[in-house]
């Protein structure tokens, strides 16, 4: 059973609450993580600061994962609160924290400045630690089996709002707050609330901050960052030209247009063939293997013949190992008609794909007992 954790137990100094305007109005406050190098210089001039002061704050944020002014003792004591308040305004306020897997899986519900709710999930494994981040408050893709999609889109998140989820997770790992002792955040996946490609500019901005070395960013490997999409073809093509070798994950969920039009409505704009071709183009351009995400739904998309069709569709673009299929046991939402596949059907699906030479795994399901599916916790709140 999961335990709901009092926020103060996870973070003894939770971020101060911000007086919030009604949902959907205004923009998040300007934050250091939103700013390019030139913009940081301009901000320093605007605030009457020497550029090295901004660099000091950046070092605390990106290298030490610190947001508490009291811990930034290299800043002048009398100006510390003002400097940090101007450059690192609170963006995320903890509402609830749930844990599972003996505390190594932690799901956090965050309230943004305008009262919008988003979620992130930190998962610690023996060999890595991964944060699953949200990129939008809500989602406009309207996939019927997804809790977030059923709530609709409220707004895009800013680069800094995305980054702050990652910095918080890095701080939890470094401070030893997650069982297993102090460690390092190694992986980031854009598989939380929202469609990352529909918030392209902010997502790419966040990715660039993640891979830049401190004090300009977190210094993560681009190869350990996964950006998912339900198939916004123009943006997939654009991502291939960015020069950042992240992993692309395509949420396909069906190999045929008839079913995918129902499960993933964006398919009415770009067919399965067009979407998979864009994924193939990404693999060909970046030399990075693409992950095909496939949520297994009982008697909906888990038939053996669909496994054969999926294998044929993927193999039609080459056999150099450009793709990997990641089957996802569906985490059903309360009252939903969609439910997880039978284990025997799941095993047969894997067997059929592997028979066609497609590397296939079944995702390790974490957080099912803490409203693990994206959007469930926000919807409940």
TrEMBL record:
CDD domains: Radical_SAM. Binds 1 [4Fe-4S] cluster. The cluster is coordinated with 3 cysteines and an exchangeable S-adenosyl-L-methionine. It is an enzyme of class 2 (transferase). Residues 1-34 are annotated as: Disordered. InterPro entries: Aldolase_TIM, Methyltransferase_A, RNA_MTrfase_RlmN, rRNA_lsu_MTrfase_RlmN/Cfr, rSAM, rSAM_sf. Its EC number is 2.1.1.192. One of its GO terms (biological process) is methylation. The active site is at residues 119, 374. Residues 125-369 form the Radical SAM core domain. [4Fe-4S] cluster binds at residues 139, 143, 146. It catalyses: adenosine(37) in tRNA + 2 reduced [2Fe-2S]-[ferredoxin] + 2 S-adenosyl-L-methionine = 2-methyladenosine(37) in tRNA + 5'-deoxyadenosine + L-methionine + 2 oxidized [2Fe-2S]-[ferredoxin] + S-adenosyl-L-homocysteine; adenosine(2503) in 23S rRNA + 2 reduced [2Fe-2S]-[ferredoxin] + 2 S-adenosyl-L-methionine = 2-methyladenosine(2503) in 23S rRNA + 5'-deoxyadenosine + L-methionine + 2 oxidized [2Fe-2S]-[ferredoxin] + S-adenosyl-L-homocysteine. It is found in: Cytoplasm. GO terms for molecular function: methyltransferase activity. S-adenosyl-L-methionine binds at residues 194-195, 228, 251-253, 331. The keyword Transmembrane helix does not apply. Its cofactor is [4Fe-4S] cluster. Coiled coil: none annotated. The keyword 4Fe-4S applies. Keywords: 4Fe-4S, Cytoplasm, Disulfide bond, Iron, Iron-sulfur, Metal-binding, Methyltransferase, rRNA processing, S-adenosyl-L-methionine, Transferase, tRNA processing. PROSITE patterns: RADICAL_SAM. Reaction proceeds by a ping-pong mechanism involving intermediate methylation of a conserved cysteine residue. Specifically methylates position 2 of adenine 2503 in 23S rRNA and position 2 of adenine 37 in tRNAs. NCBIfam families: rRNA_mod_RlmN. Belongs to the radical SAM superfamily. RlmN family. This is Probable dual-specificity RNA methyltransferase RlmN. It comes from Aeromicrobium duanguangcaii.
């Amino acid at each position: 059973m999961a335990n709901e954790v009092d926020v103060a137990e996870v973070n003894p100094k939770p971020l101060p609450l911000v007086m919030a305007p009604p949902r959907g109005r205004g923009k998040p406050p300007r934050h250091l993580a939103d700013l390019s190098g030139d913009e940081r210089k301009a901000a320093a001039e605007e605030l009457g600061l020497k550029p090295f002061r901004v660099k000091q704050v950046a070092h605390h944020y990106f290298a030490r994962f610190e947001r508490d002014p009291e811990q930034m003792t290299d800043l002048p004591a009398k100006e510390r609160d003002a400097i940090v308040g101007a450059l690192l305004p609170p963006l995320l306020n903890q509402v609830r924290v749930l844990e599972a897997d003996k505390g190594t899986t932690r799901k956090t519900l965050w309230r943004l400045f305008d009262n919008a709710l988003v979620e992130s999930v930190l998962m610690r494994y023996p060999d890595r630690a991964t944060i699953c981040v949200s990129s939008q408050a809500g989602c406009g893709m309207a996939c019927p089996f997804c809790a977030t999609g059923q709530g609709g889109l409220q707004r895009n998140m800013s680069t800094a709002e995305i980054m702050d989820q990652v910095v918080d997770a890095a701080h939890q790992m470094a401070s030893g707050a997650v069982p297993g002792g102090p460690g390092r955040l190694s992986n980031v996946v854009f598989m939380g609330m929202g469609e990352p490609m529909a918030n392209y500019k902010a997502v790419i901005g966040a990715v660039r901050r993640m891979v830049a070395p401190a004090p300009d960013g977190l210094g993560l490997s681009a190869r350990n960052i996964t950006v998912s999409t339900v198939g916004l073809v123009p943006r997939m093509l654009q991502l291939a030209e960015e020069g950042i070798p992240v992993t692309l994950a395509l949420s396909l969920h069906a190999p045929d247009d008839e079913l995918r039009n129902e499960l993933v409505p964006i398919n009415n704009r770009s067919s399965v063939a067009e979407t998979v071709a864009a994924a193939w183009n990404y693999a060909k351009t970046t030399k990075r293997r693409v992950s095909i995400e496939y949520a297994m739904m009982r008697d909906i998309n888990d038939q053996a013949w669909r496994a054969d069709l999926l294998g044929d569709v993927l193999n039609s673009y080459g056999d150099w190992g450009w793709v990997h299929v990641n089957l996802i046991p569906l985490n059903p939402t309360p009252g939903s008609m969609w439910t997880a596949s039978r284990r025997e059907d799941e095993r047969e699906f894997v067997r059929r794909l592997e028979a066609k030479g497609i590397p296939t795994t079944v995702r390790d399901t974490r957080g099912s007992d803490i409203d693990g599916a994206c959007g469930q916790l926000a919807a409940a709140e």
